[in-house]
Amino acid sequence: MKTLHKFILKSYVGPFVMTFFIAMFVFFMMFIFKYIDDFVGKGLGAGVLSQLFFYFSLTTIPMALPLAILLSSLMTFGNLGEHFELSALKSAGLSLQRIMFPLIVTVFLLSVGAFFFSNYILPITNQEAGSLLYDVRQSKPALLFKEGVFNNSIDGFSIRIGAKGDDGRTLKDIMIYDHRAMQGNNVVLSAKSGTMQETPDKMFLVLTLKNGVSYKEMTESEKDARTHPLIRDKFEERVIRFDLSEFKMSRTNKDLFKSNYQMLNLAQLKQAVDSLNYKMEKRKTQFGEQLMKSYYGRSAKQLQKTDPGVKADDFDKNYFDKLSKAEKANVIETASNIVRSAKAYSESVSNDYYSDFYSVLRYEIEWHRKFTLSIACLVLFFIGAPLGAIIRKGGLGMPVVISVIFFISFHVLSITGEKVAKEGSMPTYQGMWLATAVLLPVGIFLTYKATADSTLFDVTSYFDWFKKLLRKKKSQAGS
Q1: For 295-347, what is the HEC assignment?
Q2: Whole-model pTM above 0.90?
């Protein structure tokens, strides 16, 4: 039996590794297309890009692993059926479950590993990837000078270069507008040629201007504005240093992102949910007390100010009619202010409460997601393996088509359930387990049909069934 187990595992490992990395590559390319505008043209180094790609390739595992298990199991049993190896094993007295046993153990271990990955590694990966992507998005584009185009990337300056030499350092026809004084284009530098280069630490850009002129228009506030409205200065060489520190990507403290629900493990998620639930219950209790103390109590006090000898409860219904016109206006204005304040307070508390409520839903959704990934691996295996035994087609043709159909169905159901649960229209456990609840009976049914050697996808069997039904009806009509 050990030889059989080695044979089945050997048949499975190759397709699994291939499909797993293909799936990771596909989902990784989706990430590239989604965020490519955020890091292209910013002069990011190879180290930053490699870190970013590495972390986001790890985040594709929860999507790639179930698809790889589904496709590889379908391919494995499809190949065994196509080459009559599955029939030979069954003729030797082995059931389908016995043949699947080594792969069931393997997929179970993969599911356990997927759970530990989701609970311990994925939160750290999400934190690293999220913080790094945030820093990349916040960094300014790389400083690039195009010929004949004004560049405003450096704060306080607008620079135009007429032409660049082949070495990339030699410049011609340079014009610089200095806007640091925030007084318009009153300072202009123009040079026929020059050179530019970065300092070794890449913190400054040194621009050397040659054969140039600087112009400065004096403002009315300056004392020489009437006698010298314009100052022109010719120079043979002038060196200007521009600070490039703002173009360097700075790393944000990663601890600022650790409270995000995607960056927490099971224990932290449970703690966050308990804290928010306690906070919500406390807010509900304090809301009534604060409303009674600050608003209802103010109404009673206002009535007692009008007639101190009478309690608020003793005022009759005609009390308001007995007041003078000025007193009525005062009572109406006071009551309106109290109502507006109470309404604003109620809306503020309601917004805070529902904000915490939806945060609880997100934490609960992420808590269930830790388990749905592992269970999805098992469910999709029990769909893929029986399907491969039934269709008996290996390779990347029919198995890929069927796997994509089932995976898209699983993914659509997962997204739909999560969205409904996130809106609060359905309990989180129902929304997150919707896809599993729908596809688990499918897996059980396919396993049963494969065990019974059913011709589930044999079209001729359905035609034969209809022919038998028609013959039966004709015989009943003739009799």
Answers
A1: HHHHHHHHHHHHCCCCCHHHCCCCCHHHCCHHHHHHHHHHHHHHHHHHHHHHH
A2: no
